[in-house]
Amino acid sequence: MCSLVLLLFFLAALVVKCVLVVGYQNGVPLSEMWGIFNGPQLYRIFGLSNERAPNTVETIGNYSLSTLKGLLYVSTSLAFGPVVLYILYNRGMLAPIAATGVLKYIVILGIFGYGGRFVGRLMDSDYRQFVGVWEKAKIGTAEDKQSLKRYDFELIGVTPDYRAVENRDLWYLPAYNEGSAFSNLLATYAVHAFGRHMIYPGSMAILNTLMSSTLRVARNNFVASKNGQRVWLNSTTGDLIDAMFIPPDSSADAERQRTLVICCEGNAGFYEIGITNTPIQLGYGVLGFNQPGFAESNGLPFPTNVLAAAEAVFQYATNVLQYREEDIVLFGWSIGGFPASWLAANHPNVKALILDATFDDLLPLAESRMPSFLHSIVEVAIRKYFNLEIHRILEQYRGPLRLIRRLHEEILIIDDQSMNDVQKRATNRANYLLKKVLYDRHPDLIKDLEPQVDRWLKMTPAQRAMSAGLERNATESANRLAKLLSACDHYFVDFDANHVTPLDPGYFNIPMARTNF
Protein backbone atom coordinates (compact mmCIF):
# COMPACT_ATOMS: atom_id res chain seq x y z
CA MET A 1 0.00 0.00 0.00
CA CYS A 2 2.81 2.39 0.85
CA SER A 3 4.55 1.66 -2.44
CA LEU A 4 1.31 2.43 -4.31
CA VAL A 5 0.93 5.77 -2.55
CA LEU A 6 4.56 6.65 -3.26
CA LEU A 7 4.13 5.73 -6.95
CA LEU A 8 1.04 7.87 -7.34
CA PHE A 9 2.67 10.74 -5.44
CA PHE A 10 5.72 10.53 -7.71
CA LEU A 11 3.56 10.58 -10.87
CA ALA A 12 1.51 13.51 -9.60
CA ALA A 13 4.65 15.43 -8.67
CA LEU A 14 6.13 14.73 -12.10
CA VAL A 15 3.02 16.08 -13.83
CA VAL A 16 2.97 19.19 -11.63
CA LYS A 17 6.62 19.85 -12.44
CA CYS A 18 5.97 19.49 -16.17
CA VAL A 19 3.03 21.87 -15.89
CA LEU A 20 5.07 24.52 -14.08
CA VAL A 21 8.00 24.24 -16.50
CA VAL A 22 5.83 24.40 -19.62
CA GLY A 23 3.73 27.20 -18.15
CA TYR A 24 6.84 29.22 -17.30
CA GLN A 25 8.33 28.68 -20.78
CA ASN A 26 5.13 29.91 -22.42
CA GLY A 27 4.63 32.84 -20.08
CA VAL A 28 1.37 31.56 -18.56
CA PRO A 29 0.67 33.03 -15.10
CA LEU A 30 -0.65 30.76 -12.37
CA SER A 31 -3.93 32.71 -12.30
CA GLU A 32 -4.78 31.51 -15.83
CA MET A 33 -3.82 27.88 -15.38
CA TRP A 34 -7.10 26.75 -13.83
CA GLY A 35 -9.03 27.87 -16.90
CA ILE A 36 -6.64 25.98 -19.14
CA PHE A 37 -6.87 22.87 -16.96
CA ASN A 38 -10.65 22.96 -16.63
CA GLY A 39 -11.58 24.55 -19.96
CA PRO A 40 -13.65 22.99 -22.75
CA GLN A 41 -12.33 21.24 -25.82
CA LEU A 42 -11.71 23.61 -28.72
CA TYR A 43 -12.81 22.26 -32.10
CA ARG A 44 -12.14 25.07 -34.57
CA ILE A 45 -12.47 28.74 -35.37
CA PHE A 46 -15.60 29.20 -37.50
CA GLY A 47 -14.82 30.05 -41.09
CA LEU A 48 -11.54 28.15 -41.26
CA SER A 49 -11.52 25.08 -43.48
CA ASN A 50 -9.55 22.89 -41.09
CA GLU A 51 -10.38 21.85 -37.56
CA ARG A 52 -7.96 22.49 -34.75
CA ALA A 53 -5.45 19.64 -34.46
CA PRO A 54 -4.37 19.13 -30.82
CA ASN A 55 -0.67 18.40 -30.30
CA THR A 56 0.50 14.90 -29.44
CA VAL A 57 0.63 15.47 -25.68
CA GLU A 58 -2.93 16.80 -25.54
CA THR A 59 -4.15 14.02 -27.84
CA ILE A 60 -2.72 11.37 -25.50
CA GLY A 61 -4.43 13.10 -22.59
CA ASN A 62 -7.76 13.31 -24.42
CA TYR A 63 -7.68 9.62 -25.38
CA SER A 64 -6.79 8.65 -21.82
CA LEU A 65 -9.70 10.64 -20.43
CA SER A 66 -12.10 9.26 -23.04
CA THR A 67 -11.06 5.73 -22.11
CA LEU A 68 -11.46 6.47 -18.42
CA LYS A 69 -14.89 8.04 -18.89
CA GLY A 70 -16.00 5.12 -21.05
CA LEU A 71 -14.91 2.57 -18.46
CA LEU A 72 -16.59 4.47 -15.65
CA TYR A 73 -19.79 4.84 -17.68
CA VAL A 74 -20.00 1.13 -18.49
CA SER A 75 -19.13 -0.02 -14.98
CA THR A 76 -21.62 2.31 -13.29
CA SER A 77 -24.53 2.12 -15.76
CA LEU A 78 -27.72 0.32 -14.80
CA ALA A 79 -27.48 -1.84 -17.91
CA PHE A 80 -23.87 -3.04 -17.60
CA GLY A 81 -22.99 -2.25 -13.98
CA PRO A 82 -24.49 -5.44 -12.51
CA VAL A 83 -22.66 -7.55 -15.13
CA VAL A 84 -19.34 -5.82 -14.38
CA LEU A 85 -19.91 -6.27 -10.65
CA TYR A 86 -20.64 -9.98 -11.14
CA ILE A 87 -17.47 -10.49 -13.21
CA LEU A 88 -15.31 -8.65 -10.68
CA TYR A 89 -16.82 -10.68 -7.84
CA ASN A 90 -16.23 -14.02 -9.60
CA ARG A 91 -12.61 -13.11 -10.26
CA GLY A 92 -12.01 -12.01 -6.70
CA MET A 93 -11.30 -8.45 -7.72
CA LEU A 94 -13.51 -6.95 -5.03
CA ALA A 95 -11.14 -8.08 -2.30
CA PRO A 96 -9.19 -5.17 -0.74
CA ILE A 97 -5.83 -6.06 -2.33
CA ALA A 98 -7.26 -6.66 -5.81
CA ALA A 99 -9.49 -3.58 -5.59
CA THR A 100 -6.46 -1.49 -4.68
CA GLY A 101 -4.72 -2.70 -7.83
CA VAL A 102 -7.71 -1.73 -9.98
CA LEU A 103 -7.85 1.66 -8.29
CA LYS A 104 -4.15 2.14 -9.01
CA TYR A 105 -4.65 1.79 -12.76
CA ILE A 106 -7.67 4.09 -12.69
CA VAL A 107 -5.71 6.80 -10.87
CA ILE A 108 -2.70 6.41 -13.19
CA LEU A 109 -4.97 6.71 -16.22
CA GLY A 110 -6.55 9.82 -14.71
CA ILE A 111 -3.15 11.40 -13.99
CA PHE A 112 -1.96 10.76 -17.54
CA GLY A 113 -5.28 12.01 -18.92
CA TYR A 114 -5.63 15.26 -17.04
CA GLY A 115 -1.89 15.87 -16.90
CA GLY A 116 -1.33 15.23 -20.60
CA ARG A 117 -4.26 17.38 -21.61
CA PHE A 118 -3.13 20.18 -19.31
CA VAL A 119 0.47 20.20 -20.54
CA GLY A 120 -0.63 19.93 -24.17
CA ARG A 121 -2.96 22.90 -23.81
CA LEU A 122 -0.25 24.97 -22.15
CA MET A 123 1.93 24.37 -25.21
CA ASP A 124 -0.81 25.58 -27.61
CA SER A 125 -0.98 29.36 -28.04
CA ASP A 126 -4.30 29.15 -29.93
CA TYR A 127 -5.92 27.31 -27.04
CA ARG A 128 -4.53 29.75 -24.50
CA GLN A 129 -5.98 32.62 -26.50
CA PHE A 130 -9.35 30.85 -26.71
CA VAL A 131 -9.46 30.27 -22.94
CA GLY A 132 -8.83 33.97 -22.39
CA VAL A 133 -11.87 34.80 -24.53
CA TRP A 134 -13.91 32.04 -22.85
CA GLU A 135 -13.10 33.32 -19.36
CA LYS A 136 -13.82 36.93 -20.31
CA ALA A 137 -17.19 36.04 -21.88
CA LYS A 138 -18.44 34.58 -18.59
CA ILE A 139 -18.62 37.99 -16.95
CA GLY A 140 -18.02 40.30 -19.89
CA THR A 141 -20.13 42.36 -22.24
CA ALA A 142 -22.25 41.34 -25.21
CA GLU A 143 -19.22 42.01 -27.42
CA ASP A 144 -17.18 39.52 -25.40
CA LYS A 145 -19.89 36.90 -25.91
CA GLN A 146 -19.89 37.58 -29.64
CA SER A 147 -16.12 37.12 -29.69
CA LEU A 148 -16.64 33.70 -28.12
CA LYS A 149 -19.12 32.82 -30.88
CA ARG A 150 -16.21 32.81 -33.33
CA TYR A 151 -15.17 29.49 -31.82
CA ASP A 152 -16.71 26.04 -32.04
CA PHE A 153 -16.06 24.29 -28.76
CA GLU A 154 -17.47 22.00 -26.11
CA LEU A 155 -20.32 23.89 -24.44
CA ILE A 156 -19.02 24.13 -20.90
CA GLY A 157 -19.09 27.25 -18.75
CA VAL A 158 -20.98 29.45 -21.20
CA THR A 159 -23.59 32.10 -20.44
CA PRO A 160 -26.91 31.42 -22.21
CA ASP A 161 -28.10 33.92 -24.79
CA TYR A 162 -31.63 33.49 -23.49
CA ARG A 163 -33.18 32.01 -20.36
CA ALA A 164 -36.66 30.61 -20.81
CA VAL A 165 -39.39 31.99 -18.57
CA GLU A 166 -41.57 29.47 -16.78
CA ASN A 167 -45.16 29.46 -18.03
CA ARG A 168 -47.61 27.74 -15.68
CA ASP A 169 -50.41 27.95 -18.25
CA LEU A 170 -48.82 25.43 -20.61
CA TRP A 171 -50.89 22.33 -21.34
CA TYR A 172 -49.47 18.83 -20.88
CA LEU A 173 -50.79 15.32 -21.28
CA PRO A 174 -52.12 14.05 -17.93
CA ALA A 175 -49.71 11.99 -15.84
CA TYR A 176 -50.04 8.20 -15.80
CA ASN A 177 -50.15 6.61 -12.34
CA GLU A 178 -51.33 3.06 -12.95
CA GLY A 179 -49.70 -0.37 -12.76
CA SER A 180 -48.62 -2.51 -9.83
CA ALA A 181 -45.65 -1.64 -7.65
CA PHE A 182 -43.68 -4.50 -9.20
CA SER A 183 -44.51 -3.38 -12.75
CA ASN A 184 -43.50 0.17 -11.91
CA LEU A 185 -40.20 -1.03 -10.44
CA LEU A 186 -39.33 -3.10 -13.52
CA ALA A 187 -40.46 -0.31 -15.84
CA THR A 188 -38.31 2.24 -14.02
CA TYR A 189 -35.25 0.02 -14.27
CA ALA A 190 -35.90 -0.77 -17.95
CA VAL A 191 -36.33 2.88 -18.91
CA HIS A 192 -33.17 4.09 -17.17
CA ALA A 193 -31.06 1.06 -18.10
CA PHE A 194 -31.78 0.82 -21.82
CA GLY A 195 -35.24 2.15 -22.70
CA ARG A 196 -34.25 5.79 -23.09
CA HIS A 197 -31.31 4.80 -25.28
CA MET A 198 -33.63 2.81 -27.56
CA ILE A 199 -36.17 5.61 -27.86
CA TYR A 200 -33.58 8.40 -28.22
CA PRO A 201 -30.37 6.81 -29.58
CA GLY A 202 -29.11 10.28 -30.47
CA SER A 203 -28.42 10.84 -26.77
CA MET A 204 -26.02 7.88 -26.53
CA ALA A 205 -22.40 8.89 -25.96
CA ILE A 206 -21.09 6.45 -28.56
CA LEU A 207 -23.33 7.87 -31.31
CA ASN A 208 -22.43 11.43 -30.37
CA THR A 209 -18.75 10.50 -30.58
CA LEU A 210 -19.14 8.83 -33.97
CA MET A 211 -21.13 11.77 -35.36
CA SER A 212 -19.09 14.59 -33.78
CA SER A 213 -16.76 15.25 -36.72
CA THR A 214 -19.61 15.32 -39.25
CA LEU A 215 -21.66 17.63 -37.04
CA ARG A 216 -18.76 20.05 -36.59
CA VAL A 217 -18.21 20.28 -40.34
CA ALA A 218 -21.92 20.95 -40.93
CA ARG A 219 -22.02 23.49 -38.09
CA ASN A 220 -19.09 25.35 -39.63
CA ASN A 221 -20.87 25.35 -43.00
CA PHE A 222 -23.96 26.93 -41.46
CA VAL A 223 -21.94 29.73 -39.87
CA ALA A 224 -19.50 30.33 -42.72
CA SER A 225 -21.81 29.82 -45.73
CA LYS A 226 -25.34 30.45 -44.48
CA ASN A 227 -24.63 33.30 -42.06
CA GLY A 228 -25.87 31.05 -39.27
CA GLN A 229 -26.14 32.46 -35.76
CA ARG A 230 -25.41 29.94 -33.04
CA VAL A 231 -27.38 30.52 -29.85
CA TRP A 232 -27.36 28.90 -26.42
CA LEU A 233 -30.66 28.67 -24.59
CA ASN A 234 -31.36 27.77 -20.99
CA SER A 235 -34.59 25.79 -20.59
CA THR A 236 -36.78 25.83 -17.48
CA THR A 237 -35.46 22.34 -16.60
CA GLY A 238 -31.92 23.75 -16.44
CA ASP A 239 -30.64 22.22 -19.67
CA LEU A 240 -28.37 24.20 -21.99
CA ILE A 241 -29.77 23.86 -25.51
CA ASP A 242 -27.57 24.37 -28.57
CA ALA A 243 -29.53 26.02 -31.39
CA MET A 244 -28.84 27.61 -34.76
CA PHE A 245 -30.73 30.40 -36.50
CA ILE A 246 -30.36 30.64 -40.28
CA PRO A 247 -31.67 34.00 -41.56
CA PRO A 248 -34.01 33.93 -44.57
CA ASP A 249 -32.56 34.12 -48.05
CA SER A 250 -32.57 37.73 -49.21
CA SER A 251 -33.56 36.58 -52.71
CA ALA A 252 -36.67 34.73 -51.48
CA ASP A 253 -40.14 36.24 -51.83
CA ALA A 254 -41.56 38.43 -49.07
CA GLU A 255 -43.77 35.67 -47.66
CA ARG A 256 -40.84 33.33 -47.11
CA GLN A 257 -38.64 36.08 -45.73
CA ARG A 258 -41.09 36.85 -42.93
CA THR A 259 -41.75 33.17 -42.13
CA LEU A 260 -39.70 31.25 -39.57
CA VAL A 261 -39.60 27.45 -39.59
CA ILE A 262 -38.82 25.86 -36.21
CA CYS A 263 -37.46 22.37 -36.80
CA CYS A 264 -37.87 19.51 -34.32
CA GLU A 265 -35.54 16.63 -35.15
CA GLY A 266 -36.03 12.87 -34.81
CA ASN A 267 -34.66 10.48 -32.21
CA ALA A 268 -31.26 10.32 -33.92
CA GLY A 269 -31.43 13.65 -35.72
CA PHE A 270 -29.30 16.76 -35.26
CA TYR A 271 -29.97 20.26 -36.54
CA GLU A 272 -26.60 20.27 -38.31
CA ILE A 273 -27.53 17.43 -40.70
CA GLY A 274 -31.27 17.05 -40.19
CA ILE A 275 -34.52 18.44 -41.49
CA THR A 276 -33.36 22.08 -41.30
CA ASN A 277 -31.87 21.75 -44.77
CA THR A 278 -35.26 21.37 -46.48
CA PRO A 279 -36.73 24.79 -45.53
CA ILE A 280 -33.27 26.38 -45.86
CA GLN A 281 -33.21 25.36 -49.54
CA LEU A 282 -36.54 27.14 -50.00
CA GLY A 283 -35.24 30.41 -48.52
CA TYR A 284 -37.15 30.39 -45.23
CA GLY A 285 -35.69 31.60 -41.97
CA VAL A 286 -34.95 28.47 -39.95
CA LEU A 287 -34.39 27.83 -36.25
CA GLY A 288 -33.09 24.36 -35.41
CA PHE A 289 -32.01 22.91 -32.09
CA ASN A 290 -30.53 19.76 -30.63
CA GLN A 291 -32.61 17.97 -28.04
CA PRO A 292 -31.23 17.48 -24.51
CA GLY A 293 -28.34 15.04 -24.55
CA PHE A 294 -27.80 15.41 -28.32
CA ALA A 295 -24.41 16.72 -29.53
CA GLU A 296 -23.61 19.88 -27.53
CA SER A 297 -26.98 20.17 -25.77
CA ASN A 298 -26.78 18.81 -22.24
CA GLY A 299 -29.35 16.96 -20.15
CA LEU A 300 -31.37 13.84 -20.98
CA PRO A 301 -34.24 13.58 -23.51
CA PHE A 302 -37.11 12.73 -21.20
CA PRO A 303 -40.41 14.28 -22.37
CA THR A 304 -40.36 17.06 -19.77
CA ASN A 305 -36.86 18.09 -20.85
CA VAL A 306 -37.65 17.84 -24.56
CA LEU A 307 -40.76 20.01 -24.23
CA ALA A 308 -38.93 22.54 -22.06
CA ALA A 309 -36.23 22.77 -24.73
CA ALA A 310 -38.83 23.30 -27.46
CA GLU A 311 -40.57 25.99 -25.41
CA ALA A 312 -37.23 27.76 -24.85
CA VAL A 313 -36.65 27.76 -28.61
CA PHE A 314 -40.15 29.13 -29.24
CA GLN A 315 -39.71 31.87 -26.65
CA TYR A 316 -36.39 32.83 -28.23
CA ALA A 317 -38.07 33.04 -31.64
CA THR A 318 -40.82 35.37 -30.41
CA ASN A 319 -39.03 37.38 -27.71
CA VAL A 320 -35.57 37.81 -29.23
CA LEU A 321 -35.90 37.21 -32.97
CA GLN A 322 -39.24 39.08 -32.81
CA TYR A 323 -41.24 36.70 -35.01
CA ARG A 324 -45.00 36.76 -34.58
CA GLU A 325 -46.68 33.45 -33.77
CA GLU A 326 -48.69 33.86 -36.99
CA ASP A 327 -45.42 33.79 -38.97
CA ILE A 328 -44.00 30.63 -37.38
CA VAL A 329 -44.26 27.19 -38.99
CA LEU A 330 -43.59 24.15 -36.78
CA PHE A 331 -41.89 21.30 -38.62
CA GLY A 332 -41.41 17.96 -36.88
CA TRP A 333 -39.89 14.76 -38.24
CA SER A 334 -40.44 11.32 -36.70
CA ILE A 335 -40.41 11.59 -32.89
CA GLY A 336 -39.85 15.33 -33.38
CA GLY A 337 -43.57 15.44 -34.10
CA PHE A 338 -44.07 15.20 -30.33
CA PRO A 339 -42.54 18.59 -29.35
CA ALA A 340 -43.77 20.19 -32.59
CA SER A 341 -47.38 19.15 -31.90
CA TRP A 342 -47.10 20.22 -28.27
CA LEU A 343 -45.87 23.67 -29.30
CA ALA A 344 -48.82 23.96 -31.69
CA ALA A 345 -51.23 22.94 -28.92
CA ASN A 346 -49.86 25.66 -26.63
CA HIS A 347 -49.39 28.30 -29.31
CA PRO A 348 -52.44 27.72 -31.53
CA ASN A 349 -51.93 30.88 -33.59
CA VAL A 350 -48.87 29.49 -35.39
CA LYS A 351 -48.98 29.64 -39.16
CA ALA A 352 -48.98 25.86 -39.63
CA LEU A 353 -47.85 22.50 -38.29
CA ILE A 354 -46.10 20.05 -40.63
CA LEU A 355 -45.47 16.50 -39.38
CA ASP A 356 -43.24 14.31 -41.51
CA ALA A 357 -43.04 10.54 -40.86
CA THR A 358 -44.76 10.91 -37.50
CA PHE A 359 -46.80 8.39 -35.49
CA ASP A 360 -49.98 8.66 -33.45
CA ASP A 361 -48.75 6.91 -30.30
CA LEU A 362 -45.40 5.40 -29.29
CA LEU A 363 -46.91 2.49 -27.33
CA PRO A 364 -48.04 0.30 -30.28
CA LEU A 365 -44.60 0.67 -31.88
CA ALA A 366 -42.83 -0.25 -28.64
CA GLU A 367 -45.06 -3.28 -28.03
CA SER A 368 -44.55 -4.56 -31.58
CA ARG A 369 -40.80 -4.76 -30.99
CA MET A 370 -40.93 -6.48 -27.60
CA PRO A 371 -42.01 -10.02 -26.60
CA SER A 372 -45.73 -10.25 -25.84
CA PHE A 373 -45.14 -11.39 -22.25
CA LEU A 374 -43.47 -8.03 -21.54
CA HIS A 375 -46.33 -5.90 -22.86
CA SER A 376 -47.63 -5.00 -19.40
CA ILE A 377 -44.17 -3.74 -18.39
CA VAL A 378 -43.77 -1.92 -21.70
CA GLU A 379 -47.12 -0.20 -21.23
CA VAL A 380 -46.19 1.09 -17.78
CA ALA A 381 -42.74 2.19 -18.98
CA ILE A 382 -44.08 4.08 -21.99
CA ARG A 383 -47.12 5.62 -20.35
CA LYS A 384 -45.22 6.72 -17.24
CA TYR A 385 -41.94 7.92 -18.77
CA PHE A 386 -42.42 8.34 -22.55
CA ASN A 387 -46.11 8.94 -23.10
CA LEU A 388 -45.91 10.34 -26.61
CA GLU A 389 -49.58 10.32 -27.61
CA ILE A 390 -49.32 12.79 -30.46
CA HIS A 391 -52.93 12.26 -31.54
CA ARG A 392 -54.17 13.44 -28.14
CA ILE A 393 -51.94 16.50 -28.31
CA LEU A 394 -53.35 17.38 -31.74
CA GLU A 395 -56.83 17.47 -30.21
CA GLN A 396 -55.71 20.75 -28.61
CA TYR A 397 -54.77 22.29 -31.97
CA ARG A 398 -57.18 23.40 -34.69
CA GLY A 399 -54.85 25.25 -37.03
CA PRO A 400 -53.43 24.34 -40.46
CA LEU A 401 -51.99 20.83 -40.44
CA ARG A 402 -50.08 18.66 -42.93
CA LEU A 403 -49.16 15.00 -42.40
CA ILE A 404 -46.50 13.43 -44.63
CA ARG A 405 -46.29 9.64 -44.90
CA ARG A 406 -43.26 7.79 -46.26
CA LEU A 407 -44.36 5.12 -48.76
CA HIS A 408 -41.38 2.90 -47.93
CA GLU A 409 -41.52 3.48 -44.19
CA GLU A 410 -39.53 0.91 -42.20
CA ILE A 411 -39.59 2.44 -38.70
CA LEU A 412 -43.22 3.38 -38.03
CA ILE A 413 -44.80 0.14 -39.25
CA ILE A 414 -46.12 -2.62 -37.02
CA ASP A 415 -45.80 -5.42 -39.60
CA ASP A 416 -42.12 -5.34 -40.55
CA GLN A 417 -42.01 -9.05 -41.47
CA SER A 418 -44.32 -8.98 -44.47
CA MET A 419 -42.83 -8.95 -47.95
CA ASN A 420 -45.90 -7.14 -49.28
CA ASP A 421 -45.42 -3.36 -49.39
CA VAL A 422 -49.17 -2.72 -49.32
CA GLN A 423 -49.61 -4.81 -46.17
CA LYS A 424 -46.70 -3.11 -44.45
CA ARG A 425 -47.99 0.30 -45.49
CA ALA A 426 -51.36 -0.52 -43.94
CA THR A 427 -49.69 -0.78 -40.51
CA ASN A 428 -47.93 2.59 -40.77
CA ARG A 429 -48.85 4.55 -37.65
CA ALA A 430 -49.17 7.71 -39.77
CA ASN A 431 -52.41 6.14 -41.10
CA TYR A 432 -53.81 5.99 -37.58
CA LEU A 433 -52.77 9.57 -36.96
CA LEU A 434 -54.74 10.73 -40.00
CA LYS A 435 -57.86 8.81 -38.95
CA LYS A 436 -57.70 10.16 -35.41
CA VAL A 437 -57.35 13.71 -36.76
CA LEU A 438 -60.44 13.11 -38.92
CA TYR A 439 -62.43 11.72 -35.97
CA ASP A 440 -61.46 14.76 -33.93
CA ARG A 441 -61.94 17.49 -36.54
CA HIS A 442 -64.59 15.99 -38.83
CA PRO A 443 -66.55 13.33 -36.91
CA ASP A 444 -69.63 13.76 -39.12
CA LEU A 445 -67.64 13.03 -42.27
CA ILE A 446 -65.79 9.91 -41.14
CA LYS A 447 -68.67 8.35 -39.22
CA ASP A 448 -69.19 4.79 -40.59
CA LEU A 449 -66.70 5.52 -43.39
CA GLU A 450 -63.38 4.54 -41.80
CA PRO A 451 -63.05 1.53 -44.19
CA GLN A 452 -63.16 4.00 -47.08
CA VAL A 453 -60.27 5.92 -45.54
CA ASP A 454 -58.32 2.66 -45.20
CA ARG A 455 -59.05 1.95 -48.87
CA TRP A 456 -57.89 5.45 -49.81
CA LEU A 457 -54.67 4.99 -47.82
CA LYS A 458 -53.83 1.87 -49.83
CA MET A 459 -54.07 3.74 -53.13
CA THR A 460 -51.32 5.51 -55.01
CA PRO A 461 -51.81 9.24 -55.67
CA ALA A 462 -52.77 8.45 -59.29
CA GLN A 463 -55.37 5.90 -58.18
CA ARG A 464 -56.81 8.41 -55.74
CA ALA A 465 -57.23 11.01 -58.46
CA MET A 466 -59.08 8.53 -60.67
CA SER A 467 -61.24 7.36 -57.77
CA ALA A 468 -62.20 10.90 -56.85
CA GLY A 469 -63.44 11.50 -60.37
CA LEU A 470 -65.46 8.29 -60.50
CA GLU A 471 -67.17 8.57 -57.12
CA ARG A 472 -68.77 11.97 -57.55
CA ASN A 473 -72.53 11.72 -57.99
CA ALA A 474 -75.65 13.32 -56.61
CA THR A 475 -76.37 10.99 -53.67
CA GLU A 476 -75.89 12.29 -50.14
CA SER A 477 -73.64 9.37 -49.12
CA ALA A 478 -71.45 9.82 -52.18
CA ASN A 479 -71.21 13.54 -51.51
CA ARG A 480 -70.14 12.90 -47.90
CA LEU A 481 -67.54 10.39 -49.06
CA ALA A 482 -66.20 12.90 -51.58
CA LYS A 483 -65.87 15.50 -48.82
CA LEU A 484 -64.13 12.97 -46.57
CA LEU A 485 -61.60 12.07 -49.26
CA SER A 486 -61.09 15.77 -49.97
CA ALA A 487 -60.22 16.20 -46.29
CA CYS A 488 -57.76 13.29 -46.57
CA ASP A 489 -56.14 14.99 -49.55
CA HIS A 490 -55.92 18.24 -47.63
CA TYR A 491 -54.25 16.83 -44.51
CA PHE A 492 -52.25 13.94 -45.92
CA VAL A 493 -49.58 13.52 -48.58
CA ASP A 494 -47.36 10.60 -49.57
CA PHE A 495 -43.61 10.91 -50.16
CA ASP A 496 -41.99 8.08 -52.13
CA ALA A 497 -39.08 7.40 -49.78
CA ASN A 498 -38.04 5.55 -46.65
CA HIS A 499 -37.97 6.97 -43.12
CA VAL A 500 -34.55 8.63 -43.17
CA THR A 501 -34.47 10.11 -46.68
CA PRO A 502 -34.36 13.93 -46.47
CA LEU A 503 -37.69 15.46 -47.41
CA ASP A 504 -37.74 16.79 -50.95
CA PRO A 505 -38.31 20.58 -50.85
CA GLY A 506 -41.17 20.08 -53.30
CA TYR A 507 -43.14 18.37 -50.52
CA PHE A 508 -42.62 21.17 -48.01
CA ASN A 509 -45.85 23.01 -48.72
CA ILE A 510 -47.32 25.12 -45.94
CA PRO A 511 -51.02 24.21 -45.58
CA MET A 512 -53.80 26.75 -45.34
CA ALA A 513 -56.62 26.74 -42.81
CA ARG A 514 -59.69 24.91 -44.09
CA THR A 515 -62.83 23.63 -42.36
CA ASN A 516 -65.31 23.00 -45.18
CA PHE A 517 -64.74 20.28 -47.77
TrEMBL record:
Coiled-coil parts of chain: none
* Entry's transmembrane regions: 71-89, 101-120
A Pfam family (short name) is: Abhydrolase_1
Q: Is Hydrolase one of the keywords?
A: no
Provide the alphabetized UniProt keywords. Answer: Membrane, Signal, Transmembrane, Transmembrane helix
Residue ranges of the AB hydrolase-1 domain?
260-428
Entry's Gene Ontology cellular component terms: endomembrane system
Gene3D superfamilies for the chain: alpha/beta hydrolase
One GO BP on record is: monoacylglycerol catabolic process
Signal peptide position in this chain?
Answer: 1-18
Q: Where is the Phosphatidylserine Lipase ABHD16 N-terminal domain?
A: 32-154
Gene Ontology MF term list:
monoacylglycerol lipase activity; phospholipase activity
* Record PANTHER family: ALPHA/BETA HYDROLASE DOMAIN-CONTAINING PROTEIN, BAT5L PROTEIN
What is the protein's given name? Uncharacterized protein
The record lists the organism as Diploscapter pachys
Taxonomic lineage of the native organism: Eukaryota, Metazoa, Ecdysozoa, Nematoda, Chromadorea
